[in-house]
Design a protein that fits this description.
Layout: H1 2-36, H2 46-63, H3 65-82, H4 85-91, H5 96-137, E1 145-153, E2 156-164, E3 168-179, E4 182-195, E5 198-212, E6 215-229, H6 234-239, H7 249-261, H8 267-295, H9 303-325, H10 328-331, H11 335-359
Antiparallel strand pairs: 1-2, 2-3, 3-4, 4-5, 5-6
Helix pairs in contact: 1-2, 1-3, 1-5, 2-5, 3-5, 3-8, 3-9, 5-8, 7-8, 8-9, 8-11, 9-11
Length: about 350
């Protein structure tokens, strides 16, 4: 039985790796075509374009991982079915459930690899790719220089006009509140330094606001330094430079927690977070959904057509599941429920179809 396990695993791995090489190659080629027009600008050469695409390969692999894993599993099983090997296996006493378990085991190993790429390798390599390309084209490196932002931090509001490297801010205004509708003070500085949980405003103007009766008194002082404890951390500042899709799952989780703590809108971040969480389960549901098309047609001449139909149904489902994550923005639904419900429905449908297949 171990020999059979290894044979099925080897077949699935062979087709999964083949699909991965082909898909990544196609996407990388089209990405290279986008770069052709920039070759010759400044010091950007053909070699620079190739190196830039090389840095992007982990990101391309992660973005196409669902299709790679699904096609690898289905084509591998389809090959075994077309050669009547699945018929022989079942005739020798190997159950459909056993074959499905081996298929899922191989697929889950690719899922783990995709998660490692997406969470740890792709963000770093993509950032290095943009830095390398910008330097070769003589452009400013966007990742270290950005426009301003607002942050609500507990009872304070902070406005930064310019964020330099995530640690030094230019033209910063700190607004402190006594209560929800009452100002306590306003501090303005041309420069501030952020260090872990402390914000230090250099050479600042401090405005103390006192409400006494019908009059409001504003007392101005010029100070060399003003320190304020803050609740946000360096990860949050770094995340302000990026779209939700560019953040790791851990960064998304921390960012959502900060926004919720300060009663701020979390919609885009929650949508991306729950899409990431549900992605492995969605992929398993897709694979289970296509397997009945294979085992239900082992002696059918139209096996290829039915496998193709199963793949198309699974891929259409994946696209709809992605759209479903954004439905709460339109209909005010729960983000987790919206992300999980389509996957659960398809998982139940796939299990019922598998039950019918194995009961024959």
């Amino acid at each position: 039985m171990k020999i059979l396990d290894r044979y099925i695993t080897k077949t699935l791995l062979k087709y999964s790796l083949s699909v991965m090489v082909v898909l990544i190659g196609v996407f990388a080629f089209f990405k290279f075509l986008d770069e052709v027009n920039d070759i010759g600008r400044a010091s950007y050469t053909l070699v620079d374009a190739v190196i830039y695409i090389g840095f992007l390969l982990p990101s391309i692999a992660y973005e196409t991982s669902s299709v790679i894993i699904l096609l690898g599993a289905v084509l591998g099983l389809g090959c075994l079915a077309s050669n009547s090997e699945l018929v022989v296996m079942q005739g020798s006493g190997v159950s459909v459930i056993k074959i499905i378990k081996i298929t899922l085991r191989v697929s889950i190993s690719f899922v783990v690899l995709a998660i490692i790429l997406g969470e740890f390798v792709a963000p770093f390599s993509s950032n290095q790719a943009e830095i390398y390309r910008a330097k070769a084209l003589g452009e400013k490196i966007i990742t270290t220089n950005q426009q301003g932002f607002w942050i609500r931090d507990a009872g304070n509001f902070i406005h930064v006009e310019r964020n330099l490297d995530g640690k030094v801010f230019n033209n910063i205004t700190l607004i402190k509140l006594k209560s929800a509708n009452t100002l306590d003070s306003v501090v303005y500085s041309d420069k501030a330094v952020f260090d872990q949980d402390q914000l230090t405003l250099q050479k600042n103007n401090f405005y103390q606001i006192n409400d006494e009766g019908k009059f409001t008194k504003i007392k101005k002082e010029a100070r060399q330094k003003y320190r304020s404890e803050v609740e946000f951390d360096q990860d949050l500042i770094d995340s302000l430079k990026k779209d939700p899709q560019q953040l790791s799952t851990l960064q998304l989780f921390k960012h959502i927690g900060f926004l919720l703590k300060n009663n701020l809108f979390t919609g885009d971040y929650e949508a991306e977070f729950y899409k990431r969480i549900m992605k492995p389960i969605t992929l398993i549901a897709m694979i289970l959904l296509t397997i009945p098309f294979i085992f239900g047609s082992l002696r059918d001449a139209s096996l290829g057509k039915k496998i193709f139909l199963g793949v198309v149904i699974a891929l259409v489902f994946e696209q709809f599941s992605k759209l479903g994550v954004w439905m709460p923005k339109v209909f005010d639904l729960d983000y987790f429920l919206s992300a999980a419900l389509p996957t659960v429905v398809v998982m139940v449908l796939a299990i019922l179809m598998l039950y019918r297949t194995t009961a024959r």
